[in-house]
Write a structure and sequence with these properties.
Radius of gyration: 15 Å
Helix content: 25-40%
Number of helices: 6
Distance between the termini: 41 Å
Number of strands: 6
């Protein structure tokens, strides 16, 4: 549908504009959507800051917690990760944009992850998720206390899903 075309266009724009930085306002439009969805669904801010626009997007990109999002593809691809998440998952920006979100879970945990994402799609969000994830280089780690939510615009059009977590440990 049209939403998928919008998602493809925004993904192409992110690929062309590169990793979040001053030249692309740290992808402020995307971060605005993540933040507004989070606030509406969970009743609290994604990041505790009075900043908005590019300044808030820069704060999210440089936050000490991980933020990731994925789009609308049949096998959703990551379309955003902040610096913490990029480092944790051992990805650079071009590789992130080519990575199916399911690959963040170990092969044996992908069915459980898919069930989780279906629950989020139906309920809007989940909190306090704990699960094993795998970095691009194969290192496994446990994420704890994660929040996963649907990314929607002000008209409730669905754009994908996002996750944030501030606690993890290597396994």
């Amino acid at each position: 549908g049209n939403d998928r075309a919008v998602d493809r266009a925004s993904r192409r724009e992110r690929a062309v504009n590169g990793a979040p930085g001053p030249a692309n306002r740290f992808l402020a439009e995307h971060i605005d959507r993540l933040c507004s969805s989070h606030a509406r669904l969970l009743g609290r801010a994604l990041i505790d800051t009075p900043l908005s626009g590019a300044a808030r997007a820069e704060a999210v990109f440089n936050a000490d917690f991980a933020v990731l999002s994925s789009g609308l593809e049949a096998d959703p691809l990551f379309n955003y990760a902040n610096r913490t998440a990029l480092d944790l998952f051992e990805l650079d920006w071009p590789r992130l944009l080519a990575t199916p979100a399911r690959e963040s879970a170990a092969a044996e945990n992908q069915a459980k992850r898919e069930q989780l994402m279906q629950q989020v799609r139906a309920r809007g969000f989940i909190e306090d998720y704990t699960g094993v994830r795998v970095a691009a280089g194969g290192r496994r780690f446990m994420i704890e206390g994660a929040t996963v939510w649907n990314v929607v615009d002000d008209d409730d059009r669905y754009f994908g899903q996002a996750a944030m977590f501030g606690s993890w440990r290597d396994l």
